[in-house]
């Protein structure tokens, strides 16, 4: 494998998305709109032939990826490989908490009481560190723990001996994970104060050495 095209789709809308709750390793079902999001993404990608598909092992990601694969006209991949490596950030004690309240607890002691202010002054990575610090159990992932896990996901793709140069790979992941990838791989190219749309498509180029972003949140 020299390089592969990775099409990253954020899962369809869930009830926790509507309720403004942190949803990392916890899970809530897709809404009717969430099912539409998955169908819309499937229609966007229907004419692409995929050599492999991956998703986080949450049901919201699994349902989204299966919808997309069912709509794919090439039909070359029937089922995705589910893995915890591509899960959303683990929010620990704050799983299921109102997002604004959780980020206030994490950021206010540092003078940045909202997620946007944490990101503007520090980074998305630092937001992870602040949340773990605020977690009374310290179970939430900090930035290093998060990337150790996510990098294993990229290594899983790289280790797929069935992939060839310029193959297309489908990957279903999550909102904060997309933001985290854009911060690390796209520099300051995109406004990361706004979460990517449910069902949006981002294209990345994965090589044996690095990851480059071709476009984001389409």
Q: How does the SSE layout of this entry go?
A:
Blueprint: E1 3-10, H1 15-19, H2 32-44, E2 52-56, H3 59-71, E3 81-83, H4 99-107, H5 115-121, H6 124-134, H7 143-158, E4 167-173, H8 175-185, E5 201-207, E6 211-215
Parallel strand pairs: 1-4, 2-3, 2-4
Antiparallel strand pairs: 1-5, 5-6
Helix pairs in contact: 2-3, 4-6
- Give the CA-based shape: globular
Mean pLDDT: 97
How many helices? The count is 8
Tell me the series of helices and strands, N- to C-terminal. Answer: EHHEHEHHHHEHEE
CATH homologous superfamily identity: Phosphoglycerate mutase-like
Strand order of the largest sheet: 3-2-4-1-5-6
- Number of individual domains: 1
Largest sheet: 6 strands, mixed
Overall CATH class: Alpha Beta
Low-confidence stretches: none
Gap between N and C termini: 26 Å
- Strand segment count: 6
Strand coverage percent: 15-25%
Protein structure class = alpha/beta
Radius of gyration: 17 Å
Give me the CATH architecture, please: 3-Layer(aba) Sandwich
Under CATH, the topology can be stated as Rossmann fold
Helix fraction? 25-40%
Keywords: Hydrolase
Protein name: Phosphoglycerate mutase
GO biological process, one term: regulation of pentose-phosphate shunt
GO molecular function: fructose-2,6-bisphosphate 2-phosphatase activity
